[in-house]
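Extended Data, panel c. Modelled sequence:
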Amino acid sequence: MSCRPIIFRNVKPDTFNCMKKKLQDNGIYVPGGYRGELSGKGITASFEWDGQSNLTITITENLSLSAVKLQPRK
């Protein structure tokens, strides 16, 4: 189940490239280009940047939460 998209406005090219580099430096795979799927640290998300200022990120899977099994209290 995916979350509602998060839209960031006024994301300049240098900010977009810096964000991608920081994510990669922290073990999150980010493909080249303006759109794709990033993954790592138990999160999978799609992203799309219009190349000018609008960035949309949608969390598509959170493995760390889906791996948690809730146990009833005794």
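The two ends are 30 Å apart (CA to CA). This feature is highlighted in the accompanying rendering.
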